[in-house]
Amino acid sequence: MSGLYRKKPVVIEAWQNADDTGWPEWLSAADVGREPGGVILINTLEGIMKAQPLDWIIKGVNGEVYPCKPDIFEKTYEEIR
């Protein structure tokens, strides 16, 4: 079906890879690892993705975890608390 569609409002959890103070619990439970230089490796359905320092890591609505560049995150999400 063709037409115009708007993305439904969705609340996600996110964490910025900005320091080494620890991960949120939901990220600790995910299939992730670390590389030198603060890079986090995330095993996704599309394969292993890298979250560079300052990238956001998002837990999606189905529990999936994936990285997001800061500029895209800023355009897509707003903090609610």
Automatic annotation (TrEMBL):
Give the classification, highest ranks.
Bacteria, Bacillati, Bacillota, Bacilli, Bacillales
Q: Output this protein's name.
A: Uncharacterized protein
User: What species is given as this protein's source?
Assistant: Paenibacillus rhizosphaerae
